[in-house]
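In the design runs reported in the main text, the only information available to the sequence generator was the tokenized backbone. The following block is the verbatim input for one such run; it is reproduced so that readers can re-run the procedure and compare outputs position by position.
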């Protein structure tokens, strides 16, 4: 299994997130609920194509912090927390980009209590989002996944 680690800095404070990738090649391999998670929560209302990687959070999830609009999903099936990402994550390199975006956005949500999706807007490309967050909110990704 592959684990990803990110480190971020906001002025004097630092943050670290870690996840484990789980590859699914068919619906029954998914650790998050195919209907309750993917079909109900994804904009397309469908299960992603395969292969698909899910990101299990290894960083402790403190309910009082993660309740602040953080994209985190508890899977009753796996009894673990996962990065809440409903779109297809087709390979390891894409998983790294998504986890980097999630990490930057999560720090924003922790600090401001807001859903980072609300400020992504047209910045869907990783580099544009990373630069925007660095310039406007001083959130620096110092160790990407």
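Verbatim output:
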């Amino acid at each position: 299994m592959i684990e990803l680690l990110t480190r971020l800095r906001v002025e004097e404070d630092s943050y670290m997130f870690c996840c484990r990738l789980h590859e699914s090649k068919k619906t029954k391999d998914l650790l998050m609920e195919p209907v309750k998670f993917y079909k109900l929560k994804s904009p397309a209302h469908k299960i992603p194509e395969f292969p698909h990687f899910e990101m299990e959070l290894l960083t402790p999830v403190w309910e009082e912090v993660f309740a602040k609009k953080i994209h985190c999903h508890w899977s009753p099936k796996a009894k673990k927390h996962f990065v809440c990402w409903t779109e297809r994550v087709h390979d390891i390199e894409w998983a790294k980009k998504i986890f980097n975006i999630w990490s930057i956005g999560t720090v924003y949500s922790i600090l401001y209590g807001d859903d980072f999706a609300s400020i992504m807007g047209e910045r869907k490309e990783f580099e544009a989002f990373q630069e925007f967050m660095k310039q406007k909110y001083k959130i620096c990704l110092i160790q990407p996944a």
